[in-house]
């Protein structure tokens, strides 16, 4: 595929990655002179006309999405029996890479990332699109620190060879399955939010909630086993965050968050709660009397003095996390100035 030109305008440069369904390539849009990512369907799917039609319709639907937390889809087409989708190229790491490199993330990082995931999902759900494959691999970070949800509208139409029911179709990644997804039932917006709950758990603990030797054993645990409390692995998980994970991962979809907006709202409150409960620097003689140490400025005093400069320095830096850190710092600065 390298060196080939698709649709008369997309020059394929190199292979980026892929899976059982498709391959992804870096390409150059010769018309607009920009880099793009092109996902091409494997040959076995290009012979299913019904799938092709639905894929094209879905690509066009996703192409109408425009949100800073969603990877944009620019174009779709076919060239010599190669069906392809042209997307925004994200030259950055995935959340899966971060977790693999860093291990568990802090509650602050976890909440900040999850808010952006929910914002992107809320926009998609408003347009009638269910992702069906939310996982760290599909959460990408741009060079300027933006968080993007990728791979919308493709996995929902892929027929897996593994089905847990005779009539159901199992789609997605088993480690992040909702119980109804594991059964091959119809999915709703709350199915995506269950997967976000799993991602929250993994960010805080460095591992997925269920493990097993095969696909079926993990899927059955999502259906039958209580979702584990992350505090059993990470004792520093705030209670509010534990509650959010607990609610998002209920077995019954009705008992979960019913919209990504609702979940994002709780995450925002958890972030504020986390910021408001930062300890103050005080000497032991004044502890419990409401007085700060006369010799050492409080954490709030220090933050008030240095936050504006830190924000500006961070904006100018190349820190891949700076987008959501800056937002959180600005929010904290507003709080401490009150």
Automatic annotation (TrEMBL):
Its main location: membrane. It catalyses: L-seryl-[protein] + ATP = O-phospho-L-seryl-[protein] + ADP + H(+); L-threonyl-[protein] + ATP = O-phospho-L-threonyl-[protein] + ADP + H(+). PROSITE patterns: PROTEIN_KINASE_ATP (PS00107), PROTEIN_KINASE_DOM (PS50011), PROTEIN_KINASE_ST (PS00108). Its EC number is 2.7.11.1. One of its GO terms (molecular function) is ATP binding. PANTHER family: MITOGEN-ACTIVATED PROTEIN KINASE KINASE KINASE 20-RELATED, SERINE_THREONINE-PROTEIN KINASE YBDM-RELATED. It is found in: Spore membrane. One of its GO terms (biological process) is cellular response to peptidoglycan. InterPro entries: Kinase-like_dom_sf, Prot_kinase_dom, Protein_kinase_ATP_BS, Ser/Thr_kinase_AS. This is Serine/threonine-protein kinase PrkC. It is a single-pass type II membrane protein. Residues 10-272 form the Protein kinase domain. The keyword ATP-binding applies. Keywords: ATP-binding, Germination, Kinase, Nucleotide-binding, Serine/threonine-protein kinase, Signal-anchor, Transferase, Transmembrane. ATP binds at residue 39.
């Amino acid at each position: 595929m390298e060196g080939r030109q698709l649709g008369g305008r997309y020059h394929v440069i190199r292979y980026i990655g892929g899976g059982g369904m498709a391959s992804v390539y870096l390409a150059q849009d010769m018309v607009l002179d920009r880099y793009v990512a092109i996902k091409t369907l494997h040959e076995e799917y290009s012979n299913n006309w019904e799938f092709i039609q639905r894929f094209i319709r879905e690509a066009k639907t996703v192409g109408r999405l425009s949100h800073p937390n969603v990877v944009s889809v620019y174009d779709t087409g076919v060239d010599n029996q190669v069906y392809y989708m042209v997307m925004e190229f994200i030259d950055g790491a995935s959340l899966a890479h971060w977790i693999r490199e860093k291990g568990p993330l802090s509650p602050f990082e976890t909440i900040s990332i999850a808010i952006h995931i929910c914002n992107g999902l809320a926009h998609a759900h408003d347009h009638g699109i269910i992702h069906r494959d939310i996982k760290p691999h599909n959460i990408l970070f741009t060079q300027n620190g933006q968080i993007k949800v990728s791979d919308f509208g493709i996995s929902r139409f892929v027929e897996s060879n593994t089905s847990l029911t005779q009539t159901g179709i199992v789609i997605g990644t088993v480690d992040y399955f909702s119980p109804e997804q594991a059964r091959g039932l119809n999915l709703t917006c709350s199915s995506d939010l269950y997967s976000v709950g799993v991602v929250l758990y993994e960010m805080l603990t460095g591992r997925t909630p269920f493990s097993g030797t095969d696909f079926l054993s993990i899927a059955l645990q999502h259906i039958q086993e209580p979702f584990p409390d992350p505090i059993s692995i990470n004792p520093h998980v705030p209670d509010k965050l534990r509650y959010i994970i607990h609610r998002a991962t209920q077995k019954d979809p009705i008992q979960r968050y019913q919209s990504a907006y609702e979940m994002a709202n709780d995450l925002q409150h958890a972030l504020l709660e986390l910021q408001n409960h930062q300890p103050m620097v005080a000497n032991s003689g004044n502890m419990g009397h409401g007085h700060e140490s006369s010799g050492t400025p409080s954490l709030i005093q220090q933050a008030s003095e240095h936050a504006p400069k830190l924000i500006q320095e961070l904006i100018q830096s190349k820190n891949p996390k700076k987008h959501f850190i800056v937002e959180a710092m600005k929010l904290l600065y507003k709080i401490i100035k009150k």
